[in-house]
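ok new one. same drill as before - structure tokens go in, u give me an amino acid for every spot. 373 of them this time. try not to just spam alanines like last time pls lmao
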């Protein structure tokens, strides 16, 4: 049997990771500035993280959500404390797409409406509802396109109100910072106006913090820069540091009904051990603050070049937009300088390193990047 060949693969086989470094099967060391799509938050193979998962596996690895799991309660309490949302409720699933699916479903249940406003250049996942609100025709099949999605422009509040004023929109879904679309940041005024419009028209505001959340922006959630509180927050990626964990934080205005939402694997014992370890490490090692500090250092010291159009981002979520395709630049960074980076579109290198990145490691990238340019 062959693998279903849907990925463009580099000829690198990672076999070991530690902190912000990984090693391949030939013993070559790489600096990881991509974190496997922003997933690695506290670093590869953090000893406390490994110990917590191993300890839990030696006790019990899985049972369904038909029994009480105290680890879920423990995680909810920790997340409430470190995020500032201790009055919200936690619903646990396995991935970011699932988090957005459930957020959209809950908004529709709550309002009785069936339309959703999403934004150009957005990315919310690859499952049915999540991909329908993703602005990428290449991954939206005809089956997915049957959803009632209305499109607006980021930072254009009039384009949103045009849709909301009809009173039939269940939710507006927006990323704290657009990631795959090219590191586009909403303005504070736009986000505050968006919150006010959703209140005015009885529309649920969903903040997708799957990539921009969990400390990556330099705050726990990127939307905390804007001084607003959404109705539902979708999370994944960094929450599990590689173990599949997704979640929705849900405002007290929503009343749960038994059977309304559900999952087989979400919130399982191993996932909770991983997520609790990540939360404890992030708090103990001040990783949110480190993300803000080292991210600013990277932005302030980025090489200047006529080939670079713009550098934008917050914390350790940084996009370097070029005036040309970046395939060969990225390839040179990987194979000549042994540095993993990401991409957005054709012309942007995306940096999403573990939040434990040091200034010294940032300097290694800056020096190598200058040489490549």
């Amino acid at each position: 049997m062959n693998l279903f060949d849907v990925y463009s693969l580099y000829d690198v086989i990672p076999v070991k990771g530690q902190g912000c470094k990984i090693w391949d099967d030939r013993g070559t060391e790489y600096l990881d500035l991509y974190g496997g799509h922003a997933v690695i938050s506290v670093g590869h193979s953090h000893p406390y993280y490994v110990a917590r998962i191993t300890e839990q596996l030696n006790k019990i690895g899985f049972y369904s959500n038909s029994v009480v799991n105290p680890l879920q309660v423990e995680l909810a309490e920790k997340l409430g404390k470190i995020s500032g949302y201790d009055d919200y409720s936690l619903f646990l699933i396995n991935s970011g797409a699932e988090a957005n699916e459930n957020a959209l479903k809950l908004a529709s249940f709550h309002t009785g409406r069936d339309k959703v406003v999403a934004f150009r250049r957005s990315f919310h996942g690859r499952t049915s509802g999540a991909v329908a609100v993703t602005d990428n025709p290449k991954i939206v099949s005809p089956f997915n396109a049957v959803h009632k999605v209305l499109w607006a422009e980021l930072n254009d509040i009039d384009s949103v109100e045009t849709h909301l004023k009809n009173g039939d929109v269940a939710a507006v879904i927006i990323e704290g910072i657009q990631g795959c679309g090219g590191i586009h940041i909403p303005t504070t005024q736009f986000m505050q106006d968006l919150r006010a419009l959703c209140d005015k028209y009885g529309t649920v505001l969903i903040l997708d913090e799957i990539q921009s959340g969990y400390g990556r922006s330099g705050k726990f959630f990127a939307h905390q820069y804007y001084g607003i509180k959404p109705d539902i927050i979708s999370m994944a990626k960094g929450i599990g540091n590689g173990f599949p964990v997704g979640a929705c934080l849900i405002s007290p205005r929503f009343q749960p009904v038994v059977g309304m939402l559900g999952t087989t694997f979400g919130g399982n014992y191993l996932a909770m051990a991983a997520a609790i370890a990540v939360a404890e490490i992030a708090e103990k090692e001040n990783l949110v603050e480190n993300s803000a500090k080292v991210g600013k250092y990277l932005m302030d010291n980025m090489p200047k070049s006529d080939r670079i159009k713009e550098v934008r981002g917050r914390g350790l979520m940084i996009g370097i937009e070029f005036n040309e395709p970046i395939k060969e630049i990225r390839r040179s960074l990987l194979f000549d300088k042994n540095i993993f980076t990401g991409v957005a579109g054709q012309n942007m290198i995306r940096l999403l390193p573990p939040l434990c990145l040091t200034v010294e490691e940032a300097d290694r990238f800056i020096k190598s990047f200058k040489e490549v340019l």
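Residues 37 and 352 are 7 Å apart (CA to CA). and btw The first helix runs from residue 35 to 38.
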